[in-house]
């Protein structure tokens, strides 16, 4: 979908943490790194079709069969099977993202930082729960925006150009057991390379 809409200047209103995006965006009512600005995916759905358990297909929206619509958004498929979703797209100026990272060395410091930088469209905090003592809960606040003014002169020549596809790809998704205390410790390196502190 992104390969079609991004070059035309459009993007998904809310993007989950995966590139494998399906109608489950509705059934899970996914949120993204812009939740504080744009809400969850259901805030952008105009209408959807749903096959009920009795085989009947019914259309629902915030205004039409509203109770069924609300129950289906985030209902994890318990109300029926979503076969069609009509939703709004988000207008973008660029396919590039300008990122800013701020190191929060003290526990809980990321909360006021989120409020301070709430004008950024996208934000997320990485929190280190492995460090002990006074450093427990240190974090990195990652902010991002997609404004045309943030681009360099070369990028401004083709602001909506998609990056070239990687020639080498990983053939499968990693199993859940890969995420463990040893691999999470990679955060320590990620944290230490950030220099801007708060």
Number of helices: 8
Kindly state the percentage of residues in helix: 10-25%
Cα-atom Rg, whole angstroms? Answer: 20 Å
Distance between the termini: 38 Å
Strand order within the widest beta sheet: 3-2-4
Class based on secondary structure composition and strand pairing: alpha+beta
How would you spell out the order of helices and strands? HEHHEEHEEEHEEHHH
Written account of the structure:
This protein is an alpha+beta fold and 198 residues long. Helices cover 21% and strands 21% of the residues. It is built from eight helices and eight strands; from the N terminus they run αβααββαβββαββααα. It has helices spanning 2-5, 24-27, 35-38, 66-72, 110-116, 153-157, 181-184, 186-192, and strands at residues 10-11, 45-51, 57-60, 81-87, 90-91, 98-104, 122-127, 139-145. The strands form three sheets. A three-stranded antiparallel sheet has the order 3-2-4. A three-stranded antiparallel sheet has the order 6-8-7. A two-stranded antiparallel ribbon has the order 1-5. The radius of gyration is 20 Å and the shape is globular. The mean pLDDT is 83.
């Amino acid at each position: 979908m992104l390969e079609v809409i991004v070059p035309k200047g459009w993007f998904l209103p809310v993007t989950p943490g995966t590139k494998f995006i399906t109608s489950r965006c509705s059934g899970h009512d996914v949120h993204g790194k812009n939740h504080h600005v744009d809400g969850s995916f259901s805030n952008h759905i105009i209408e959807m079709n749903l096959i009920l358990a009795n085989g009947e297909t019914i259309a629902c929206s915030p205004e039409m069969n509203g109770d069924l619509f609300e129950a289906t958004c985030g209902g994890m498929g318990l109300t029926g099977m979503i076969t069609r979703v009509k939703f709004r797209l988000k207008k973008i100026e660029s396919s590039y993202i300008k990122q800013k990272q701020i190191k929060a060395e003290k526990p809980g410091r990321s909360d006021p930082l989120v409020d301070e930088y709430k004008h950024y469209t996208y934000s997320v905090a990485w929190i280190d729960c492995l460090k002990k003592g006074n450093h427990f809960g240190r974090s990195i606040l990652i902010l991002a925006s997609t404004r045309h003014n943030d681009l360099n002169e070369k990028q401004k020549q083709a602001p909506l150009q998609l990056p070239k596809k990687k020639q080498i790809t990983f053939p499968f998704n990693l199993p859940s057991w890969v995420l463990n205390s040893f691999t999470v410790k990679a955060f320590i390196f990620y944290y230490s390379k950030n220099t801007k502190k708060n």
